[in-house]
Amino acid sequence: MFFQNLSRFNQQIAAIEGNLSITYAQLAQAQQDTKSQIQHSIGDAGQLVFIKAYNGLSTLVVYLATLESQHCAVLLDPNIKEADLTRLVEQFRPAMIAHCEAAQQLRLELVDPLPTPNTLGNVGVLLSTSGSTGSAKHVALSKENLNANAQSICRYLPIKTTDVTLCALPFHYSYGLSVINSHLNQGACCVFSNASPVSREYWQLFDEHHIASFAGVPFSYELLLRLRFTQKKLPHLRYFTQAGGKLAAEHVVALANYAAKNDKQFFVMYGQTEATARMSYLAPDKVLDIPESIGQPIPDGEFKLVAQSGIQIDDADTQGELYYKGPNVMLGYVSCRQDITDLASLENKQPKWLATGDLGYRNRQGDYFINGRKSRFLKLAGQRLDLDDSERLLQKAGFNAKCTGNDNNLLVGVINGQRDVNLIQEIKAWLHQHLGLHPTKVQVLPLTTFPANANGKMDYAALSQLAEVSIDD
């Protein structure tokens, strides 16, 4: 597996953080030393290890050490609120909390008293479903899930042993974690950074370390495009990837054109935490032709579409719910200590097909498209409203908007920009005319930027909270 026998890459540089670097031989030794320390402290097997996953070398070492042991790593946002951490400790009863910090600083804190060991089976990692710091619902991923996804990614991404990738996505986020796993699988180098794309430090890393690839979510690419990313040369950059949500087609085209003109490759990908990160990718040579597509399943993966009646859809251009099957599909969900007591039993309940909750269709060439979310619906005054479809229509009409709400009203967050003060009435009038929504059923909230969660995804819950504050004010 990718986390075993790391010393086979010997003196290749495995990871860099600031002025610190570590070879694969050194990383393997650090992994074994930390594994011994963990096992000496909490026993040989069956415990949960909470890891406050700072984006750096300390997290990398304790993550790999936990995978090598018979314990289970629970990756958390390093900035988790103390109240949220306390609640998770009460719910899951970990044996240890690993506090990871910069400059390879690691502090292992024992929970007193140690909980009774669990039957973990082959569960390797628990990841939050939403990226929110206090979410109690976690996805249980086996070591085989993690390894299978890393192997599949390496079969379609051109990762070389000599590559250096920029790891700026959160370590505890499934997309960011998959970047790390796949590069370790190939013996490549991960450069960890918490710098923002708007900082000089971020771009200095490209020159200093000859960055060959990087990954981003829609929010980060929208920011990069505003920063005129497509005017940068970046001579060592070979390819870049996008996942974590749907990027607007015009942005996909702009990035694909940049890649084509500068001898680079741009990969659009689709995934969920429940599938250990990746389920499909759109080949770079197709991006300009079908920029709204998520492409085809990753190697060893398979899609199917299911109608509302439960019948599988075999015809092209027919909408249904997207299902995925592959060795990277999770074991199941856990949300409390009771679930943890026998994680091994999850291996007998592992879903054969994962219901993604996304609605889509397949073209005649076998490429898939997502055009809605099964659960993203409201029912306003007896009218069923597709929130994703509403967002697309508003975007097409020239409004940079995101939609959420409840069965009482539709909430529209909109980037104000340079529009006039009549923006709220303008949007309400447009929705009334085109969707038949009465203005009293619509709340419009002008924003300077959309709220994003720790993973860089659109945070609809935060948008709702902003609206509540706006009403209170």
TrEMBL record:
Keywords: Ligase. InterPro entries: AMP-bd_C_sf, AMP-dep_synth/lig_dom, ANL_N_sf. The keyword Transport does not apply. Residues 3-333 form the AMP-dependent synthetase/ligase domain. Belongs to the ATP-dependent AMP-binding enzyme family. This is AMP-binding protein. It comes from Aliiglaciecola litoralis.
